[in-house]
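[step 3/7] inverse_fold.run input=structure_tokens len=458
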């Protein structure tokens, strides 16, 4: 006999638990189904563990530079990877425990631990139980892509398995020069590994502006990271402890040898094992569930939130998806994905934060625009901290004087960019920031100065 609920939430990532709590508070009987760990990617194998380990890597880097600041460090700096991982595990465990306690305390909510698959548009099976509901919310996330020549016989790491290494790689070969690859590349270089990044595009982070890619390359190469671009026809070779990567299509092509390989070549949605056909849910050519701007799928009563709908691959976009669904269903509001624009940060050190359009996108759109750019060497706070790599850049609509996009590659950029972000959301002209007094000495205080020196984008 099926067990009947008002709502079933599949996947306990960023959106699922929060929506479960809202539904429960609204008096609904809810089932939350999770096949692995509450908290999903971000809490267990994504943002939280990586940013905890980035903090360890930053500490090692600062300790190595101690002499530059007049501080005498007694011995050569080295990293105890096991301690780094223990610290990371503790932070992750605390975060997950908080979530588990929250879900366990909800009224009318049952948490099922198991894999859910559709039986029909109104029912799912979990093990040998069948649950039915008029509303079903999918928050099943994504997983690493591992399809590359040789991956069936050569050992490799993913963004999940690298988090639990018990010894430092002698030479880590990172395949993919984007968000995941670059954060791990710098982290392991700072832990003490030799690191090579292999990217098939002509530059790192191919979706960012060319000056951003170049700035990031400079930062990474200055720390001794080797970078190989335009690496086509990759093939993994070798065996555990002695792995290689063939780099181009011609016979006898160059190889890179290393002790470990990290595959960071993208992620794919967890939709292939949901039996979506039984519910008639439509996916696109990459397997992402197709939704409208209110996150409704083509099937009445079924919604998809987070990475699985292909409308963002970030914790904040998944959380915003939850807010949109809750607003429309429970508060009778009108929030939609149309209200948001791209915002994200890459957590190398210094970080790169971006909002809105890139310079290349503004140029392509043919908009009359103004541009402002300032190197971090002309940001007093960055110089005083001894962290003056990078730059800040803003694109402004020439007519409305509203911000079209901005990037800060530099110390504190992930925080400082939020004043530009708020100005964009409030659709205010940049004069609002340009004329407001900022606190000295901060990275943010140079944003008004940059805005006062805009030039036409030619
Ligand atoms: C290494 C790494 C670092 C990252 N760093 C950042 C960062 O700094 N900032 C940022 O914004 N984003 C970051 N991200 C991305 C971020 O983690 C995700 O965008 C975020 O977790 C949103 O995920 P989600 O809510 O869509 O689902 P997820 O968190 O992926 O959760 C989906 C859950 O569904 C479960 N599930 C799947 N299928 C089923 C099924 N059939 N039945 C039951 N359960 C199922 C899974 O087990 C999982 O727990 C990072 C990702 C990675 C991999
Ligand atoms: N700081 C953050 O917010 C953060 C951090 C990590 C991950 N994430 C999320 O995770 C998602 C996935 O990240 P990702 O870096 O794995 O994927 P990605 O899709 O951003 O980048 C994959 C990279 O691998 C390259 N590539 C693909 N196939 C290749 C091949 N065969 N050989 C060589 N290079 C190849 C691509 O050109 C690309 O540069 C991101 O889109 C992001 O949303 C976010």
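[step 3/7] decode complete -> sequence:
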């Amino acid at each position: 006999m099926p067990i009947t609920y008002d709502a079933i939430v599949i996947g306990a990532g960023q959106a699922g638990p929060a929506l479960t709590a809202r539904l429960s508070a609204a008096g609904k009987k809810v089932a939350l189904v999770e096949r692995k760990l509450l908290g999903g990617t971000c809490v267990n194998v994504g943002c939280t563990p990586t940013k905890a380990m980035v903090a360890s890597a930053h500490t090692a880097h600062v300790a190595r530079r101690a002499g530059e600041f007049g501080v005498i460090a007694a011995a050569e700096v080295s990293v105890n990877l096991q301690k780094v991982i223990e610290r990371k595990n503790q932070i992750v465990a605390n975060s997950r425990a908080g979530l588990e306690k929250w879900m366990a305390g909800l009224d009318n909510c049952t948490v099922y631990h198991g894999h859910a698959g559709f039986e029909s548009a109104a029912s799912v099976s979990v093990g040998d139980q069948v649950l039915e509901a008029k509303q079903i919310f999918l928050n099943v996330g994504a997983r690493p892509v591992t399809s590359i020549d040789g991956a069936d016989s050569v050992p490799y790491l993913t963004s999940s398995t690298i988090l639990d290494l018990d010894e430092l790689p002698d030479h880590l070969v990172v395949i993919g020069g984007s968000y995941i690859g670059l954060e791990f590349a710098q982290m392991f270089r700072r832990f003490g590994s030799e690191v090579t990044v292999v990217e098939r595009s002509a530059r790192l982070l191919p979706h960012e502006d060319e000056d951003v890619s170049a700035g990031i390359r400079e930062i990474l190469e200055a720390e001794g990271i080797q970078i190989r671009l335009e690496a086509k026809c990759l093939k993994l070779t070798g065996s555990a402890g002695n792995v290689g990567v063939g780099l181009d299509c011609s016979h006898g092509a160059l190889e890179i040898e290393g002790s470990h390989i990290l595959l960071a070549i993208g992620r794919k949605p967890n939709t292939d094992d949901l039996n979506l056909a039984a519910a008639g849910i439509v996916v696109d050519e990459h397997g992402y569930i197709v939704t409208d701007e209110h996150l409704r799928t083509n099937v009445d009563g079924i919604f998809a939130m987070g990475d699985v709908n292909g409308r963002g691959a970030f914790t904040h976009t998944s959380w915003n998806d939850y807010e949109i669904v809750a607003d429309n269903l429970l508060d009778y509001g009108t929030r939609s994905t149309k209200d948001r624009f791209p915002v994200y940060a890459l957590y190398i050190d210094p970080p790169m934060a971006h909002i809105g359009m890139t310079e290349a996108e503004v140029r392509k759109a043919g908009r009359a625009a103004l541009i402002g750019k300032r190197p971090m060497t002309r940001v007093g706070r960055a110089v005083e901290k001894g962290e003056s790599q990078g730059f800040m850049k803003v694109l402004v609509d020439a007519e409305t004087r509203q911000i079209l996009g901005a990037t800060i590659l530099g110390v504190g950029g992930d925080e400082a960019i939020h004043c530009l972000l708020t100005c964009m959301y409030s659709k205010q002209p940049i004069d609002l920031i340009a004329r407001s007094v900022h606190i000295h000495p901060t990275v943010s205080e140079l944003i008004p100065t940059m805005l006062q020196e805009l030039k036409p984008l030619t």
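[step 4/7] annotate
The CA atoms of residues 152 and 236 lie 9 Å apart.
Residues 3-142+268-339 form a domain with the FAD/NAD(P)-binding domain fold (CATH 3.50.50.60).
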